[in-house]
Fold this sequence. Notes:
alpha/beta; Rossmann fold
Amino acid sequence: MAHELLKGKKGIIFGALDEKSIAWKTALECHAAGAQLVLTNAPVALRMGEINKLAEQVGAPVIGADVVNMDDLKKLFEGAMEHFGGKIDFILHSIGMSLNVRKGRHYTEMDYGFNQKTLDISAMSLHRVLKTAWEMDALNEWGSVVALTYIAAQRVFPDYNEMADAKALLESVTRSFGYHYGVRNKVRVNSISQSPTRTTAGSGVKGFDGFISYAEKMSPLGNASADDCARYCVTMFSDLTRMVTMQNLFHDGGFSFTGVTQAVIEQMEKQ
């Protein structure tokens, strides 16, 4: 898509794991739109080496950071501002990890120690990122921060497990910090509630194939792809959406406001 929506803008992309990830695709779209980037992920993810291929494609340095470590985040922002020669215009938070899901623990039998780590990594990490940027005055006025979420924060999807709680907390942080950052620096903070997407992380949810098939039938436009989401992120980072903040924006082909579709009715009648 030929445009320069992000020409001259500078951003940090969290969470690009591999070519399937939304963060990876968002980095490519931001680069195509004219942005300069810094890529970051947890040290364990960096050891996989995949992100180096993306870094070469978009001409971005990779700065590792553990999102629950405030010193790491400070070094990340220092490194990014040194690389850019100034402040940052946008951030993508694409981070999620559930220890209870990994360990196969049912929601009613969760390990609370695991749960605390899940909430810290998947939700409070956004607060940590924003707090670091706030204290360092790292974001330009009218900057934009986007966090990726899912509708399980509002509705029950049994096998989404504790990640539903994490996403609900993530969306709350988006609103609360979005208020304060808007008042002080006109920085906008939003979350995007994406369709179920075939990423490496998403595919780890039990029953994912049936899940994505159902969502496809329940969405008038069909499921939004990772590429679609990446392009939506570009618009949220651009000046076209300067007055949008503290919102949870559904990017799901209409799934979130559909009670039932003819396709689902026909499927049920067949059964």
